Amino acid sequence: MKKWYAVIGDPISHSLSPQMHSKWFEALNMNATYIPIHVPKEQLHQSINALRLLGVSGWNVTIPHKETIIPLLDRLSESAKWMGAVNTVVVEKDGTLTGHNTDGEGFVSSLEEMVGHHLKELQVLIIGAGGAARGIAFSLKAAGYESISFTNRTLTTAEKLVKEVGGYKALTIQSAEESLNDFQLIIQTTPLGMKSAENILPISLDLLNPSAIVADIVYNPLLTPFLLQAEKKGAKIVNGLGMFVHQGALSFKMWTTEQPDTEQTVEELTRILGGPYVNR
Ligand code: ATR
Question: Is 233 a residue of the active site?
């Protein structure tokens, strides 16, 4: 029988996940499909019951349900527990629901696919201290990255995250700007730079080390004002599309055990989003 998968969220119509997963099923000759489902906040519980009843094999979770879905699931993976958020649900053979989170690991896989595996000794600065920053920090730590600092508009949130992750530093925006030259990998995790968000930089890049790698988790637009500025200063830039594709590939692998072609997908979605030179 044909299997089916889904992504639930609100809004959902702009999600690229259905296109990406459907292509992977097709490329791997699998008898399965993946659909977007619009689920407003107040219908989350009912929707999960409906998904179960209708025999879904697994689904992705996006804004605004990543945290609120947790009490509605039977079990959580270690990564979902750490992050306090779920982006992937696996329906087990006995029908129970396990929540996972592939966002942070997706970021690390994408970074290493694009710029190599020899990055663990780099001094890392994460800008932002929300759910995305938490996921990335835990995954970097699990992958062996030794030095991670956080900077955030609200310092206390960064300090809280430092306590949770353990052993790293929280900096004010000003002290991060002043010591920016010390960092070789800078990761932007705030919504600034998204199409709908304000067009300002989260921190000034005046003192950016020209040999730094600068990553942004935003992928629409592909080139945020932050990345454009970093590129002008000579840095190597990494947009958020790879993270999006890799988090999806990790979900796909959990559901099917198959590994989709992530490099080809990044190329295809880059074209769909306007090409690598958009905004330049
Ligand atoms: P997510 O779960 O997607 O990471 P979040 O938990 O709302 O989203 O976190 C958003 C992050 O972006 C936070 O670090 C937030 O800073 P605060 O802790 O000070 O709220 C940061 N952020 C959001 N809007 C911002 C803005 N306009 N300027 C600077 N930082 C911003």
Answer: no
Eight-state DSSP code of residue 103: H
Q: Provide the 8-state DSSP code for 4.
A: E
pLDDT for res 278: 61
Q: What's the token pair of residue 251? A: 């979900």
Q: What are phi and psi of 10, to 5 degrees?
A: -155, 105
**What Å distances lie between residue 150 and 36, 38, 147, CA to CA?**
34, 34, 10
Residue in 61, 83, 153, 188 to alter for ligand 1 test, most ligand atoms within 8 A of Cβ? 153
Q: Which residues lie closer than 8 Å to 264 by C-beta, 6 or more apart?
A: none
Q: What is the pTM of this model?
A: 0.92
Q: Identify the three-state secondary structure at position 166.
A: coil
Predicted local confidence at residue 196, as pLDDT: 65
Question: How many CA atoms does the CB half-sphere of 109 hold within 13 Å?
Answer: 18
Residues with CB under 6 A from ligand 1: 128-133, 152-154, 157, 189-192, 198, 202
Instruction: Return averaged pLDDT per consecutive 10 residues of the chain, 280 residues in all.
Output: 96 94 97 98 98 97 95 96 93 96 96 87 95 91 93 97 88 98 97 77 97 94 94 96 97 98 95 76
Least Cα distance to 215 among 201, 230, 203 occurs for: 230
- Ligand 1 centre from 130 Cα, in Å? 6
| Catalytic one of 2, 3, 41, 66 | 66
